[in-house]
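Reopening this one. Same input as before:
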Amino acid sequence: MPAFTFEKISPPARRAPTEAAPKKPRSVISQMINRIAERRAKRASQVERTAHRDEKPAE
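Same output, byte for byte:
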């Protein structure tokens, strides 16, 4: 016979999400980082396209 037992604890009941909270405007710093990242990604894709174009042998 066990010396002790464990009590089964049920998980907390899920509450339905209340009205969606309005999205906070992004900070100026995060906007600047996003712009820089977009430009860098654009530049990288352009370099990739030109490198891919240069690989094809001309016949």
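So the earlier flakiness isn't reproducible anymore. For the record, Residues 28-55 form the longest helix (28 residues).
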